[in-house]
Amino acid sequence: MLKTVKFGGSSLADANQFRKVAAIVKEDLTRRYVVVSAPGKRNSGDDKITDLLLRCQRFAAAGSDYREALSTIRERYFSIAKELSLKADLEKEFSVIEEALKKGATLDYVASRGEYLNAILLAEFLGFAFVDAADAILFDENGALLEEETNRRLAAVLRKNPRAVIPGFYGANAKGQVVTFSRGGSDITGSLVSRACQADLYENWTDVSGLLMADPRVVENPRAIASVTYQELRELSYMGASVLHEDAIFPVRAAKIPINIRNTNAPGDAGTMILPAANSVPGHITGLAGKKGFSAIYIEKDRMNNEVGFVRKVLQTLENHGVCVEHVPSGIDTISVVVSTAELKDEVDQIFVELQETVQPDRIALFDRLAIIAVVGRGMIRSQGTASKVFGALAKENINIRMIDQGSSEINIIVGIEEKDYERAMRAIYAAFVAEE
Ligand code: ASP
Fold first, then answer.
1. Looking at the structure, do residues 132 and 32 belong to the same domain, yes or no?
2. What is the reported pTM?
């Protein structure tokens, strides 16, 4: 049995959190590889170290005074080290960082130092080896991860170090320059480490006891999800449920390694298991997620279904403008293309002109301020009544449905509604499923 454990920023925000982390790691000898984020917020008014580092770099690049931001960062690390009686030479580490700032260090390099320093401290505290991600996680010159090379290199480095702490969030390119993932990317590092060491489980420790069935800002006290498949999680996180970086799923999914989301502040809670496949209860949904900020381009044309290439031409026009298409519900003579409003930007007029020319529709219109809700559940495959429950709940609330789409995987039903109805719709759908159990 071998486990990779990743701790998020709030799990390592101060010395007390370090102690909790050490207790978790030490309690189970199979927890051999530890991936860390930079220290996060200690309370709601606090700053994340990564944000402070980014600020430092921006000030330095603009020729302004970065010293105040840097000294706040220093204090955070020095206080952790002091309270835990660690001997790491932070003085030296900070002089290297300061030198780099003076010489115009890149944003990626500076941002990565949060994880780097945290991993050095935690490695010492645990008595584990420190493995620098810059030596094992490899990017190409365009900043894209080199998956295969990374897997090989990481596996080799980990074989030499039976217990190690690895900083999350970054790696390096062939020139040795640090490259970071997008924000929250330590989850990806955890996933890569899990695959490289062929872990049996990837535990992702954070400050919530797993994934909830709905957004707690909208639905009061939603239930926790005990198990979710990778595929369901993709649907939920794409639609706004955030517990893990979107790209973190792929490496472990390929290796069929389950992920367990756990709570550092409530280690007794079982959390949520993310699995390649899981048993399903017919009629039961796994969760709900949604987002506002969509627009639908509605196109109508008689005998559209007989016109070869019609849909392609519509999509091509959007592609030419770099607009990503989210959903394409269609009828015999109608098609709607749902896109994020922000993506359409100022191009909408030009897109309409081009669509008029290329497909000559009978009618074309734009509907803004749409919200989309995804009802996700492996239990809805081949089980009757899920859709009627969703639509019944909305009808009872007098909510007008603007769009319906069911993915061919049959694990989700997508409904488009007006933004003003979003919160009410979420609560109504949640209640319709949960009340009956
Ligand atoms: N520290 C980085 C961030 O704040 C990466 C991470 O925490 O995963 O985004």
1. yes
2. 0.85
Distance 210 CA to ligand 1 centre (A): 19
> How far, in Å, is the centroid of ligand 1 from the Cα of 390?
36
| Half-sphere exposure of residue 237: CA atoms within 13 angstroms, side-chain side | 17
Determine the distance separating the centroid of ligand 1 and the alpha carbon of 38, expressed in angstroms: 6
Residue 302 forms part of a structural domain: yes
Tell me if 184 CB under 6 Å of ligand 1: yes
Q: Which two tokens stand for residue 200?
A: 């049996």
The tens place of each residue's pLDDT in the chain, 437 residues long, gives: 999 999 999 999 999 999 999 999 999 999 999 999 999 999 999 999 999 999 999 999 999 999 999 999 999 999 999 999 999 999 999 999 999 999 999 999 999 999 999 999 999 999 999 999 999 999 999 999 999 999 999 999 999 999 999 999 999 999 999 999 999 999 999 999 999 999 999 999 999 999 999 998 999 999 999 999 998 998 888 777 778 898 999 999 989 999 999 999 999 999 999 998 877 777 788 999 999 999 999 999 999 888 899 999 999 999 999 999 988 988 889 999 999 999 887 899 999 999 999 999 999 999 999 999 999 998 887 777 888 899 999 999 999 998 888 877 778 899 999 999 999 999 999 999 987 55
Tally Cβ neighbours within 10 Å of residue 183.
Answer: 13
Cβ(183) – ligand 1 distance below 6 Å:
yes
What is the extent of the structural domain holding 418? 287-434
Residue in 23, 27, 53 with CA at minimum distance from that of residue 38: 53
User: Among 275, 300, 321, where does a domain finish?
Assistant: 275
CATH number of the domain bearing residue 339: 3.30.2130.10
Residue 282 in any domain: the answer is: no
Asked if residue 280 is part of any domain, the answer here is no
Q: Are both 258 and 351 inside the same structural domain?
A: no
Q: Going by DSSP bridges, is the β-strand pair 164-167/129-130 parallel, antiparallel, or unpaired?
A: parallel
Tokens 């199979």 label which residue? 30
Residues facing residue 336 across a β-bridge: 298
Count of structural domains, the chain? 2
C-alpha 12/C-alpha 34 separation (Å) is 12
- Whether the CB of 168 sits within 6 Å of ligand 1: yes
User: Which of 275, 297, 317 finishes a domain?
Assistant: 275
Both tokens assigned to 167: 């900083």
